[in-house]
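Hi both,

Apologies for the delay on this - the queue was longer than expected. I finally got the zinc ion-bound model through. Below you'll find the protein sequence and the ligand SMILES exactly as submitted, and right after that the structure tokens for the full complex including the ligand.
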Amino acid sequence: MKYSAFYNIMPDGTVKQINPFTGNEVWAVPERAAKPIQNAATAAEPASLEGIDRAHICAFCSGRYLETAPEKFRYVREGNAWHRHDYLLADQYFATAAEFRCFANLFEIVTLDYWKQNYGYIPSPTDLEKLHRHAATDAGMQHLRGVVEYKRAFRASRNNGQKGGATASKSGNGNAGGNGSGNGNGGANGNGNGQEHRELSNDDILALSEPMYAGCHELIVARNHYHPNGTTQADLLSSGRLTPSEHYHYFKATIESLERIVARNRYVRYVSVFQNWLKGAGASFDHLHKQLVGLDEWGASITRQVTMLKKDPNAFNEYAANFAAMFNLVFAENEHAIAFVGIGHRFPTIEIFSKSRHARPWEHTPEELQGVSDLVHACHAATGAEISCNEEWYYSPIDAVVKMPWHVLIKWRIHVQAGFEGGTSIFLNPMTPIELRDRIVPRLYALRDEGTVQNVLIAEECNIAPNPLNYYL
Ligand SMILES: [Zn+2]
């Protein structure tokens, strides 16, 4: 049996796994699964939201639009219709409520300078024209100045052992998430600790604002910090607490940002798309957002998967969907997507695959996108907002000649790696695949019954035909 090399249940219940795509060796040891899954569950009662201004919790909140980089676009809802507004000017920001906003991460992982110095990348005249248009109003220039000076002060405070950190903490959790204090220029100077900055001229501000228009690290940020009906601080708005329609537009906005990054910079070969939910998963903000980072290579993981596909074009059916089906790990499906528990991951991992012939997210039809979105949404809802998790996207690179199906992994960050793993390269996952499946399935039924999730067949209802992924056609 070809799968036995990758998945073995020992007589004592230990599940030994090797991920067919990464080669990672993982054990799930039964007693470890009994450990408490979430420390928060035993924590004190979450604080009430009564009297709290929910629009000003963090720099991503809807009352603080001017504390982040200028918007590239936003989605606004009017009744059931969704409209995109591109490059609004600063004094237009508060005229509408943005359901989702796209703007640059102030603290880029791959910087504009990286592209300029390593590739001779030149920002396009169109992007620079948008920057100048924004700066042409007083509100716009003040906005840019606030953000640039916040960033400068934050950097200085870091380099200076936190001494100059007055503005960095202004936003509550000033960290690499891309926030700015937006409080004019009052924050950067005058903290009297020797951190002297000369006053920046408007030309300086324009030059320092270039990455916010021409850079390739973007954020998609949701409207609300807490669920609109939430009553306590436990009611954070997670992916699973969006409505299906909101989640669809969240995906749509993310894909549009992806396409624009590719169009903006011809040296980009892959755009990494991910979502870190809560601190335990690496998030600086507990306000829902996705990140997109343009890269000049595919990265080791995608390269390895593409190599596998060259040898076996059906690898993702064979070693993902069919494999999961043979071990009853498929737990949800609809016409356009299928979800199952992943094998050989360091963290309990849900995998959602598009069944489409279209191997890239932006090639999906609206119906296909809705199908994938609905299943990802259902998996997040079944996970619950209290669990830290990473969402990672994988798809065919723009320059790949083989097709890899678009798939999304949701990894539950519910444990800290044990020291054992460094020495052995064997990773301990606290849940067996079956345990993870059995935790999700009853939740999915309940969520569907209450109408929170849609368009999902659950457990035995799934069709599970062989080779359900059509990417190779
Ligand atoms: Zn917020």
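Main takeaway for now: The chain has eleven helices and 16 strands.

I'll put the files on the shared drive as well.

H.
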